[in-house]
Amino acid sequence: xxxxxxxxxxxxxxxxxxxxxxxxxxxxxxxxxxxxxxxxxxxxxxxxxxxxxxxxxxxxxxxxxxxxxxxxxxxxxxxxxxxxxxxxxxxxxxxxxxxxxxxxxxxxxxxxxxxxxxxxxxxxxxxxxxxxxxxxxxxxxxxxxxxxxxxxxxxxxxxxxxxxxxxxxxxxxxxxxxxxxxxxxxxxxxxxxxxxxxxxxxxxxxxxxxxxxxxxxxxxxxxxxxxxxxxxxxxxxxxxxxxxxxxxxxxxxxxxxxxxxxxxxxxxxxxxxxxxxxxxxxxxxxxxx
Length: 289
Description:
The chain is of the alpha/beta class. Helices cover 51% and strands 14% of the residues. Strands 3-2-1-4-5-6-7 form a seven-stranded parallel sheet, sandwiched between helices.
């Protein structure tokens, strides 16, 4: 992905190279005590310059990912996978969650209310300005609620829409606009089987309706991004193997479910060069459920 103009990373690299050149020159002009000392100084300066340039080039080339719901089961697994693959990750957490003081340098967490459209947009814009681009965004924030038609009010529906769709849209919109400027990027929304097929939404009306909007949003974004390498995928998992689900469904067989780590690996694959030509909007991750 090419970038035009001079950003702080390019300036930093040029500054380090100039500094190293001055260091090399000063060493060569120092009082010479012997031929071998001069040669060793010269080699040290060359080595120092090369190592710094390699280090800075790694920073410049580091891919950038945004993960919402970084404190949740799926969000945490996605963050760990992308960090292990050398990404810089900016994760969002709720205001009730604590920031990990021991997180690596390429991992940043921010407490933010994703239902606040302006605050969310400001967060995305800050990452884009600081890092120069956004390569991937994985939006995992959401919630679940049971309820048949007889006991589901419009208030219940709007609560689920706010939690599952509004948080996703408030993040996806500024990310999508940034990626359209870049001409490249991957957005991953989290749908569900009930949202994909209303026949699976019996007994969970508000949840199913809110998740169905996720699939429609992906269709609209992909249609608008035609001609550019900006793709929006929807991950449609079956039951995710989490401690909470195991506790609420003690008689179920979790071996038939899908683990957060498996989903994270699939998402990373779709961000890799091997998946560049794939345009499949819906990624079903069901295992044997």
